[in-house]
Write a sequence for this structure.
């Protein structure tokens, strides 16, 4: 199959495996062996996806003899009220597989619906954003937002296949396209210093040229890093939350919609500066990170419309990284290496009464650079 790159992954604590496939263009005659055992599929499609791409995917499933029911999903929040109609359709149609075509929101809600129905049925994902290809479709994390808390209800439910066709990225506006590079840069900083310098070199090219072989390899390698680290032991995979303590807080400020990748980019910039103030990370590497984020046109500055006290209150809701008296942060030590605390863990504790002052220092540092 032309331009096909398959990564087979055995999830942590699971007897099944799934594949992540990449193509520059969705191949004709696509008929993977994973489809042969299914009879009825519910296909959940983001309405913003180009119809010609959707039709080719749909034709492939129909040619495999699968009876397809379609549910169109308008972009919006991942809420219980939006999940319920999908579950009702599943009960009425009784699918034995669910297929999702869309970005990270679709990946999360499709995976969660599949995990809930009949105590779990298989699902396949067709990510259509850069972020979806390197992050949201990998690792089996599915969830909806509930009670004002992001991803507060969910399940670990692995897709049997994540099929990535780069051509669909052409339909994205530049900001949406580039938002996914926050997670790519994060993976490089945490796990692969050579990959960081590869990204720096790549940033001097047309980074939105999906037909460039380097682009394909960068997406593929980033997905590999996420797969390798996302379902390790909990004490290890918490490394992936670099930039997310602040990033999640920004996402929960509902007065304006902020992309996950943009929030993570800002979070990495500020949290990286915190690591420098703590003497954990060298300012030179933080400056290189900041420069690379900017080269991919990602935001780094703390939003001027955000009140620090309000942000901290939102950060408190993210219980993976917050307690009553303190916050946890993942900090780089060097490119490709995460800082290890005195207890052998990968988080650093900052007291609530210290955080506001430290945040103000880091925001000012960013302004000075």
């Amino acid at each position: 199959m032309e331009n096909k790159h398959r990564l087979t992954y055995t999830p942590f604590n699971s007897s099944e495996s799934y594949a992540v496939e990449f193509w520059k263009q969705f191949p004709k005659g696509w008929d993977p062996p994973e489809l042969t055992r299914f009879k009825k599929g519910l296909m959940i499609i983001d309405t913003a996806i180009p119809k010609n791409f959707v039709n080719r995917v749909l034709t492939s499933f129909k040619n495999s003899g699968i009876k397809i029911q379609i549910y169109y999903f308008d972009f919006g929040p991942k809420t219980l009220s939006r999940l319920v109609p999908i579950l009702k359709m599943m009960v009425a149609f009784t699918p034995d597989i669910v297929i999702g075509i869309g970005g990270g929101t679709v990946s999360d809600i499709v995976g969660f619906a599949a995990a809930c129905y009949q105590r779990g049925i298989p699902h396949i994902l067709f990510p259509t954003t850069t972020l979806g290809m390197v992050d949201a479709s990998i690792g089996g994390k599915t969830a909806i937002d509930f009670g004002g808390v992001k991803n507060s209800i969910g399940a670990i439910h692995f897709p049997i296949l994540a099929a990535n066709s780069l051509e669909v990225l052409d339909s994205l506006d530049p900001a949406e396209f580039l938002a996914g590079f926050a997670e790519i840069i994060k993976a490089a900083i945490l796990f692969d210093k050579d990959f960081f310098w590869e990204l720096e070199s790549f940033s001097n090219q047309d980074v939105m040229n999906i037909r460039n072989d380097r682009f394909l390899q960068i997406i593929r390698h980033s997905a590999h890093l996420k797969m390798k680290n996302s379902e390790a032991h909990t004490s290890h995979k918490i490394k992936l939350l670099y930039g997310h303590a602040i990033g999640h807080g920004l996402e929960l400020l509902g007065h304006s919609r902020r992309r996950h990748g943009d929030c993570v980019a800002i979070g990495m910039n500020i949290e990286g500066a915190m690591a420098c103030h703590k003497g954990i990370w060298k300012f030179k590497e933080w400056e290189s990170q900041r420069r690379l984020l900017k080269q991919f046109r990602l935001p780094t500055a703390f939003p001027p419309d955000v009140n620090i006290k309000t942000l901290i209150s939102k950060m408190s809701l993210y219980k993976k990284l917050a307690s009553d008296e303190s916050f946890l942060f993942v900090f780089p030590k060097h490119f490709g290496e995460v800082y290890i605390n005195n207890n052998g863990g990968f988080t650093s504790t900052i007291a609530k009464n210290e955080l506001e002052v430290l945040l103000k220092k880091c925001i000012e540092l960013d302004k000075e650079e």
About this structure: The radius of gyration is 20 Å.
